[in-house]
Design brief:
four-stranded mixed beta sheet, mainly beta, about 350 residues, flat
Length: about 350
């Protein structure tokens, strides 16, 4: 790691410095400022003592500096792991082997022997075993959990590293009969990644009674339905999930593509400081009109301040001092829900700062 250190000086300016012996490899010593900087390339766990002498025209000042260089931490993780949470994969007994890769962010380190190879191990070979050098996991015939671990031994410059992954083996067929799976309700043109709730053995194969519509895709391994719906409508079908254990699990599904949520942007609030202001046009600008094709209409919450002249054009007549909420409403269309947005219009007295009636200030 790059380091920089300079002594605290409570006296006169330092004009030169000296050190009693060569500094640790990778570090440099400045003979004018006493600064030590650089990236140490050796480990000094016990600490190395140096005598440093700072000088100016009035004399010398000496102190002892101890430099300790520890091995560097090297965090590693399995893909998708979140710190502080167990990472669990559920498999069926005797299922197809799979590969557990470990992310080692130090593989680009520029020091010799900065990293080592992962040594894998398991806690229960009856559930799952791992090839020590490759990370390929084979499922056993038993049920339960086996902790698959990766250990990278300490090296010249780095501490040892550890990560673990829990492999859970469940005997028995899948069960997707839960009521949560009865309805799928995606929105039009919105990403969907639906997987049925499964409360037993993992799904390894899935059959759908008819091709899924609306431009969506079906995964024959996981039963997942993904993609963006390109049309509206309802479709009923049957899913059959299996994993080699009898019986298969069957569920009737209804998929209904709903109108998507739309968003419009009415822009910023408006401040008016002159009652003589002519009518204003407060309309949705280009880029803020949303995706739907519905018409946009306008309204005012306080016509004593801003009176709507034309609900379609967005023209308001400024009628008095105070504030009003102006609302733009975009009508529901074939594929999008109704959308609204508001701004606040605030009208204050004329710039003279006095009360004004009919253009007279008093």
């Amino acid at each position: 790691t790059v380091n920089s250190w300079k002594p605290q000086n409570d006296g006169g300016n330092i004009t030169s410095c000296d050190i009693n012996e060569s500094i640790l490899a990778g570090l440099t010593f400045d003979y004018i400022t006493c600064e030590i900087k650089g990236r140490p390339t050796v480990v000094e766990g016990a600490g190395k003592k140096y005598k440093i002498t700072a000088t100016n025209i009035l004399g010398d000042s000496e102190f002892i500096l101890t430099i300790l260089v520890d091995k560097r931490d090297r965090p590693i993780a399995f893909p998708g792991q979140v710190e502080g949470q167990d990472t669990i994969v559920v498999k069926s007994p005797n299922s197809i082997p799979f590969d557990l890769q470990v992310d080692d962010p130090m593989k680009t380190a520029d020091l010799v022997n900065a990293y080592g190879n992962c040594v894998f191990a398991e806690t229960d070979t009856n559930v799952a075993s791992v090839v020590p050098n490759s990370g390929v996991v084979s499922m056993g015939l038993g049920s339960g959990e086996s902790v698959i671990s990766c250990i990278i031994p300490a090296t010249t410059y780095y501490k040892s590293a550890y990560a673990e992954y829990i492999v859970r083996s469940v005997s028995g067929p899948p069960d997707i009969s839960h009521n949560d799976n009865a309805n799928i309700l995606p929105e039009f043109d919105t990403d969907i990644n639906w997987v049925p709730r499964n409360e037993n053995g993992p799904i390894t194969s899935c059959i759908i009674s008819e091709p899924v519509n609306f431009g969506l895709e079906f995964n024959t391994t996981t039963c997942a339905i993904t993609g963006k719906a390109n049309s509206m409508g309802t479709q009923g079908f049957q899913l059959t999930a299996s994993n080699g254990f009898a019986p298969d699990s069957v569920k009737q599904i209804t998929l209904t593509v709903q109108r998507a949520t739309d968003t419009i942007d009415y822009g910023a609030d408006v401040n008016i400081t002159d009652l003589n202001t002519a009518n204003i046009f407060k309309i949705i600008e280009i880029g803020g009109e949303g995706k739907g094709t519905g018409n946009i209409t306008y309204s005012s919450s306080n016509e004593a301040v801003a009176k709507l002249v034309n609900a379609t054009s967005g023209e308001f007549n400024i009628t008095g001092v105070g504030s009003a909420t102006l609302t733009a409403t975009k009508a529901q269309s074939a594929h999008y829900k109704q959308a609204t947005d508001t701004v606040t219009i605030t009208v204050t007295n004329s710039p003279c700062g006095l009360d004004c009636i009919d253009n007279f200030c008093f």
